[in-house]
Design goal:
Layout (H helix, E strand, L loop, with lengths): L1 H20 L7 H5 L9 H12 L2 H15 L3 H25 L5 H9 L2 H32 L4 H9 L13 H15 L6 H23 L32 H16 L15 H30 L10 H8 L3 H23 L1 H11 L18 H17 L2 H27 L7 E2 H11 L11 H5 L3 E2 L7 H4 L7 H8 L10 H27 L1 H5 L3 H23 L16 H15 L3 H25 L33
Antiparallel strand pairs: 1-2
């Protein structure tokens, strides 16, 4: 008997633990409309914000470095593949923004729509994205300033303080540390982002980019895309510059370049953090994301094209490659014009990277998922001062110790994972049962009717029923489905996999089948990519022993995607919905995971360490201190669901281990 009680207790605690990972942040319809922030931003303001925060380091630094070390002239294709992956992610972000028009980006979207563990992973990776984004732009900023003085600071520091460690910068960049700390101080004392300031510098930046493309086209030489191996430095030098031609490092190098170039598109998601400050967020956010990504891609494509056409790719691994190229072809005045645009672009980029970081940390700390001290607001300056200072110091140290290429790879892997999870979340939400806006009173009566446990009833008093409000379909659990005890037969499940009954509306069974199909897609994509990357050289030579297994894996993956496509999806009204579901989210998952696997081993090791630290914080601290944590029998129903971390959960009891 004692052993049976112990086993039952362990089962209950395990179930409670699992439920805790998927508990959701509850929002009322009033919460999604009301805000204490001023709704003043238009589509133009948001588009300027997205372009300004993104169009910087990729133009002035990354294009030349990726061309010289990874992709050669095919860097233009690297930017194209990265743009496609970013566009797919942008569409998924846009649907999330239409579902939950609140500040907080994908973190709050996933917390409301999917669950707590998914929200933590996305939020933790957004912290990595913004920290390293700040560090990399600061590093590029200092490199540009130093290049104007013929790299005198860099050369002196290499001589006095060399860092001979693998994966670390050659010297400590104190200038980038100082730039980051100065910005941290500005943000900590309450300096707010000005859309007018950002728009002016964004227009100046675009004018310089347009000048670079037009001026560079006069010096373009197609021969620089057709260099023979004899025209590049021999491989006995300190670096191997490939075999020449348009793909000097092969198509694999082009995709490695795309994985790094993906970093250049990171920043458009800052648009999603402004949901409470936009006049019409459901329409303005999707339009702004798509417009900003289009302008950013055209800028990257144009600059990388003229840059590699003007000068050989192998000689562009510089701190400031774009003005260097113009100087080498004799356009000395262009060096200074472009440097002005670079400083303007990098100024908006570093502000765009640093500004959202304390917001994400503040939101997570307010929800209790990370240390709640980070949600402390300064009484005078009204800023999350502790989060701002800690994130600024961390970003400054990263900028001081790592070079731009290492930082870009680290940022790319975290962002790619976050975008993958956003695409997965969109798929999960699309195939959930279509629960329309319902009054909680009727839901509660349904619960009482369905549930045989009367112990819940005292918590649902008449006074509570009188004050219950309408909740959004994304926040309410369909209790009749949640508490369903029906056991489906194998034949029913097999029928539903291909929807032989031609269901048009989702059911509990179709939702469960869809969830497993989404999990199967992610697993099969990972297996397919491991196989393709592991036998990449054999595929290029069309060896039959790898072609046939590859085709089989591709067909299995296609069958799962088609099965998901056949499932009934909900038809809830949204101002923006991702088109061609599930194919576009699947494309995002496919490309993002492939680009992640093309990143270096050292990048994966650093990322694994970052995620381990995050899980230690969450499972050791956040899971018990979450604002959605419920002690047994503490089921509460309230109409005061707020978005500031004081949200009450209406989930079932979660008997976690104390």
């Amino acid at each position: 008997m004692y052993m049976e009680l112990q086993v039952n207790s362990l089962i209950m605690k395990t179930r409670g633990f699992v439920k805790a990972l998927f508990r959701k942040k509850q929002l009322s319809s009033r919460d999604c409309k009301e805000t204490s922030l001023h709704r003043c931003l238009s589509v133009f303001d948001l588009t300027s914000l997205g372009i300004g925060s993104t169009l910087g380091l990729g133009i002035y630094v990354l294009a030349g470095q990726v061309a010289s070390t990874k992709a050669g002239p095919s860097v233009v294709l690297s930017f194209f593949f990265a743009a496609v992956a970013s566009l797919v992610a942008g569409l998924c972000y846009a649907e999330f923004g239409a579902r939950v028009p609140k500040a907080g980006s994908a973190y709050i979207y996933s917390y409301v729509s999917v669950g707590e563990l998914m929200a933590f992973v996305i939020g933790w990776n957004l912290i990595l994205e913004y920290v390293i984004g700040t560090a990399s732009v600061a590093r590029g900023y200092s490199g540009y300033i130093d290049s104007l003085s013929n790299n005198s600071v860099q050369n002196k520091l290499k001589e006095l303080l060399p860092l001979n460690l693998n994966g670390i910068s050659e010297y400590p960049d104190f200038l980038s540390l100082g730039i980051t700390l100065l910005l941290t101080l500005m943000l900590a004392i309450g300096v707010k982002e000005s859309s007018r300031f950002n728009s002016i510098f964004m227009v100046l930046n675009l004018c310089i980019v347009l000048f670079a493309v037009i001026a560079g086209s006069f010096e373009a030489d197609i021969h620089n895309w057709q260099l023979s191996k004899s025209e590049i430095p021999s491989t006995n030098t300190s670096y191997n510059y490939g075999d020449g031609g348009f793909f000097p490092y092969g198509f694999s190098g082009t995709m490695e370049g795309a994985a790094t170039c993906f970093y250049a598109f990171v920043g458009f998601d800052i648009i999603a953090t402004t949901g409470e400050e936009v006049k019409n967020p459901q329409k303005a956010i999707p339009i702004s994301i798509i417009l900003s990504l289009l302008v950013i891609f055209l800028s990257y494509f144009g600059v990388s094209s003229v840059e590699t056409l003007m000068w050989p790719y192998w000689d562009q691994n510089r701190a400031a490659p774009l003005p260097y190229v113009f100087e080498m072809v004799g356009w000395h005045i262009a060096k200074w014009i472009i440097s002005v645009g670079a400083l303007a672009g990098l100024s908006t980029s570093i502000l765009g990277a640093m500004f959202p970081l304390p917001r994400i940390m503040y939101a997570m700390a307010s929800d209790g998922l990370i240390f709640q001290q980070l949600a402390t607001v300064h009484g005078r300056f009204k800023t999350p001062v502790i989060a701002t200072v800690i994130s600024g110091i961390f970003a400054g140290l990263m900028a001081m110790l790592f070079d731009v290429r290492e930082l870009a790879d680290m940022m790319s892997i975290g962002t790619l994972l976050a975008y993958t999870l956003v695409a997965v979340s969109v798929l999960l939400l699309r195939y959930k049962p279509n629960v329309e806006y319902v009054e909680l009173e009727s839901s509660t009566r349904s619960l009482r009717k369905k549930d045989s446990n009367p112990s819940l009833e005292p918590h649902l008093s008449d006074s509570s029923l009188d004050h219950m409000t309408t909740l959004s379909s994304e926040s309410v659990v369909d209790n009749s489905m949640l508490l369903s005890k029906e056991n489906y037969t194998l034949w029913q499940i097999l029928q539903q996999i291909f929807n032989f009954n031609n269901l048009s509306n989702p059911t509990h069974l179709s939702s469960q089948v869809s969830t497993y199909l989404v999990a199967g897609i992610v697993l099969m994509v990972l297996v397919f990519h491991c196989f393709v990357i592991g036998f990449e050289d054999h595929f290029s030579s069309l060896e039959i022993q790898v072609i046939i297994p590859g085709i089989i894996l591709a067909l299995l993956l296609l069958i799962i995607v088609v099965a998901l496509w056949l499932q009934p999806s909900n038809s809830g009204k949204l101002s923006f919905r991702v088109p061609l579901v599930p194919f576009i989210p699947f494309l995002g998952i496919f490309m993002n995971l492939y680009l992640m696997m093309k990143l270096s081993k050292n990048t994966w090791i650093r990322f694994a360490v970052w995620m381990c630290v995050g899980f230690i914080i969450y499972f050791g601290y956040g899971i018990r201190r979450s604002s959605n944590y419920l002690q047994p029998k503490d089921v509460q129903v309230t109409n005061d669901s707020r978005c500031d971390g004081e949200t009450k959960s209406t989930n079932e009891e979660s008997p976690l281990i104390k």
